[in-house]
Amino acid sequence: MRRAAAAGAMAVAVLMAIIGAAAAVAAAAPAPALMLRRSAPLKELKPLKKLDSARFTKRSGVPEFGLLGLPGVYYTNVRLGSPSKQYSLQVDTGSDLMWVSCSSCTGCPATDDDGITFDFYSPNSSSTSSNISCDDDRCGDAIKEGHSVCQSSDSPTNQCGYEVAYAGAATSGYYVSDTIHFDTVMGNGSEQVASSSASVLFGCSISRSSYLQTDGIVGFGKNAPSVVLQLNSQGVSPKSFSHCLTSSEDGGGILVLGEVAEQGLEFTPLVSSQPRYNLNMEGISVNGENIPINPSLFTTSNTQGTFVDSGTSLSYLADGIFDPVINAVSSSYRRHIHVEEPITD
Asked: pTM for the full model?
């Protein structure tokens, strides 16, 4: 179980759709949602860069999940199994797989740096848990996206495994199917919440080498076996989600599987041809003044582009963009901050 501490104010709303355009959601259709939270931001960038390095090598009638928080990351508490048990999972729009550390994990840490105990998933302790074999269609879908590993065997019991590598970190294990429990906002102008559940495929990690503050990761990417796609295929939710961050001092927010109907939101299309949530960046301005930057640096291709990733702590800019932006921010800071001369006798 993760804990949440006070956090600086933040007001951001990011709405994303799997295919690159927001899906229409009927007002009366229930859909899942999760609460998001975060803890106080760190006072220096080095720990956040460490988190990012370990990773690289989104209302009306919707299911919701709450966001909580730790320094540099947003996470949500997800209930899995029967009887259900709660796990803290980092919310990551930059990857597809949901995985949790399993009781058979080799070398997995028992606690985080603050001494908080991690929770481990045990397939044998859940009456609704089942292993996924290589001949399962869901395993085949994961193989197509490069998220599955199967040994050469004609046996139907051949277990579907996975290996996921982030820059400087990795995890591996096998797939299981079990029940995920979530709250559903019923819609029709009502704030009534109902308990719902569905069967999902996720990874049972038996090996983990990474600096991670949670029990695992829940991937909200565009490809199989993303939880968003799995729930949509069962008619549980639309093929879209809303990742909304609150402006309260406690940080956090809400993760809705569907659209959030709020006034004043800004929308931008996604690049559907890219595997991530890429945007067509057109320019950057500081205090309303456009910064002169070579437009070719914003071009989206297979080797460059701008994408939204909830699992990355910091914003990263290409060399040709970084210096002009920093210079503009520094110049604006000097113009708007008045420094008084010290009083002398």
From this structure: 0.75
209: which residues sit within 8 A by CB, 6+ positions away? 107, 169, 170, 171
pLDDT digits (tens, 9 = 90+) for 12-51: 223 333 323 333 333 334 556 677 655 444 455 565 555 5
From 52, 92, 141, 178, the catalytic residue = 92
Is 113 part of the annotated catalytic residue set?
Answer: no
* CA-wise closest residue to 183 among 252, 241, 97, 254: 254
Structure tokens at 305: 């582009």
- Non-local (6+) Cβ contacts of 46 within 8 A are none
Pairing of strands 216-219, 85-92: parallel
Is 92 tagged catalytic? yes
CA distance 340 to 345: 15
- State how far the Cα of 298 lies from the Cα of 281, in Å rounded to an integer: 6
Q: What pLDDT, on the 0 to 100 scale, is given for residue 190? A: 56
Give me the amino acid identity at 5.
Answer: A
